[in-house]
Model the fold of this input.
Amino acid sequence: MEKKEETKAENLMANSTFSNQISTALGLQGIFDMPCEGDVINQKASFGFNMDMFGIQDYCNPSLFDLIQTPVVPPQPAAVSESPEVVNAPATPNSLSVSSSSTEAANDEQHTKTTAEDQEQEQDKEKAKKLLKPKKKNPKRAREPRFAFRTRSEVDHLDDGYRWRKYGQKAVKNSPFPRSYYRCTTPTCGVKKRVERSSDDRSIVVTTYEGTHTHPCPLTPRGNIAVMPESSAFSGNIGTSSFVLPQPQYQQLQQQQQQQQPYFHNPTPSLSFSTTNSSFPTFQERQFRPSLPSLLRDDGLLQDMIVPSQVLKYPKEE
DNA sequence: CGGTTTTGACCGGCGC
DNA sequence: GCGCCGGTCAAAACCG
Done:
């Protein structure tokens, strides 16, 4: 019951354009504070990361950034060793018979407690267990670059335009709120993200991204930030939005992989977040306010902070 | 019926 | 070596 309510709520909130787009796009690391509720948005958006690079430092909050930025990148990449041990082939199905016989012997010594079938089952279990081991191949595999940011939102999992599948949830020490683990559903994309609620302020969601998407945002044809995909009222404007979030890391990958994957030839828009000569107004020029139609109101209002200027103009601003 | 979420178990790293 | 903890797996449940 509650679950359904939650689902509803999440659906309602699902439109929240997510700041990870920004972060992902910029390849930033650290924790970004991204207030996205109306009460907060009215306070003047306090981007926690340095937006100087966009020429919109007016809205950056360096102190906050400094305050909350944390080294989410592991201290040491600990030499990724493709050591032979990774080859350490676990018991393969073929080896089953061998170990099976030895197991039988062992059982024989004790007592004939199990039938052959039982043993087979046990062997299957063990085999299954062992089959898990090879996955530890890269014991110290270098972690992807990570970054985290904080978002004030009622929902844990905000829609960032990408599709995620939850693959785990864990209770977090010293926090009453569990941490959820998501993985990008795109087969070749190994991006993960963790979502947890701040124990200090339950209204704050801490999202940590790991890795770089190797594909455009599925909800947008050109990898642009997705803004209210189902809001047809805006999609038109958004489609031509000057607010285009490039994805440096993604672009890097483009360069690296475009030979392998023509997919990446899809030109990623250049950084037009810069306000110097684009039609996108400076943050200073813009008035962040809950100006979107009511259907947006309950969403994380982050989209207010990053919706294109056209959208912002949409509702008469008075 | 296929995709997603839930959830208990498992594993490795790390500190003691 | 042991226990704790974070991260992941995968079967089952759930959902559209």
Q: What stands out?
A: Residues 3, 7, 128, 132, 135, 167-168, 170, 172-173, 179, 181, 192, 194 of chain A lie near DNA strand C (CB under 10 Å from a C1'). The beta strands of chain A are 31-35, 146-152, 164-171, 178-184, 192-197, 204-210. The first strand of chain A starts at residue 31 and ends at 35. The domain at 151-210 of chain A is CATH 2.20.25.80 (N-terminal domain of TfIIb).
